[in-house]
User: Fold this.
Amino acid sequence: MGKKEKTSFVCRNCGHEAIKWMGRCPECGQWNSMVEEVCRPARRQIRRSSAMGPAESLETISLAPEMRLKTGLSEFDRTLGGGVVPGSLILIGGDPGIGKSTIILQVLDRLARQELRALYLSGEESAQQIKLRAERLGICGQDLYVMTGTCIEEFLEHVGGLRPDIVAVDSIQTMYTEDMASAPGSVGQVREVASRLMAYAKGSQIPVFLVGHVTKDGAIAGPKVLEHLVDTVLYFEGDRGHLFRILRAVKNRYGSTNEIGVFEMTDTGLDAVGNPSRLFLEERPEDVPGSAVISCMEGTRPLLVEIQALVGPSPLGMPRRTAIGVDHNRISLLVAVLEKRLGMELGDQDIFVNVAGGLKVDEPATDLGIVSAMMSSFLNRPLARDLVVFGEVGLAGEVRGVSHPELRLNEAGKLGFRHAILPKTSLEGLKSGASMTLSGVGSVQDIYDSLFQG
Ligand code: TYD
Ligand code: MG
Assistant:
């Protein structure tokens, strides 16, 4: 077609573009990740006649009653903000082996049982393999259709005849479009296939799930190209050493973000966990210094988690600061606050902080838990077993109020906690009395006093 097509080299890991091939990406340092891709001159899309209507006043736009498909898997529906929205494109990302294919198949099965026609397109497994997995999961749906293949054009041809109500594509990295010369899984292919499926979802009002593998640095399909394209991004978290999995909404055009669903991997698939707080506290050690329980908000739900700290003299000239499940910088900051405001000598101590159970928390209210756990370990004095803490700590050593103190306290009350330490301002703003003794703190000095001077 006229001009010769230009090519460039794109890093599969980070999306960095270069005009020549390199063994190592100069941007992210990954070896052997540069692949050649055709950069097409902006292709004239065949314009669909009804794509853009005339402008409309916001006031006159009518709302169709919101219809969501409920899967019946409570934790899954919750993560999506109450069910699947028709015509939405939902990306499910996660490490290989974490359970993406499993949950997708379970979701499709639940919907197929509601007399919806579900279609599962797999580019990774054969129909027999899928059948085997389905048997393991106790699925034998009549309305669940399976297709195997990797060409998106072929798929779009077939899908017209089947007219499904819901579609899942597993995985986006295995699919390709004939329009591009580059290999499946390359940046251009992933982007192009996803936008085809987006057009398909919007045009037909059929919800489409995409499964995407996360690469080492946590980005789907290497670059984050898909995240802004799709309506909803769900990430599967949890390490394989633990049986539970967290599904987290990091983007949602149809609901709140940071909503999480908690599942347990059993030998018959993923089960929703009804009481996650209990699960996270199950293996909490008794009367050991360095363990504090916080009540943190994950989306709209309070969750109790145990923060563990280990503080001890370092044999190294440069003491270690290790954080798992919480932000590393946050630890450095809080250590500095303790040193400056309380005069604690932590400069020559190794400090390890861990969120028990492999959960990741990044809420400011975690601060008080980290601080309490570090103090407890440093002073070698355990905290009360029925104590829960939450609050943000500022650089001046002040403790700042956090949102939803009632919800946090209620959750703690339900699980048998009898004492709570919370920010003074949150305590003053409390509407209803709680069933436990509450101490409001305004500074790290106050925390120290109420933990160890009482
Ligand atoms: P899978 O859904 O294939 O992961 P992904 O699609 O994200 O790569 O899940 C694979 C893991 O789940 C595998 O290690 C086995 C385990 N598993 C169970 O423990 N129980 C089950 O019922 C199933 C189907 C899988
Ligand atoms: Mg899979």
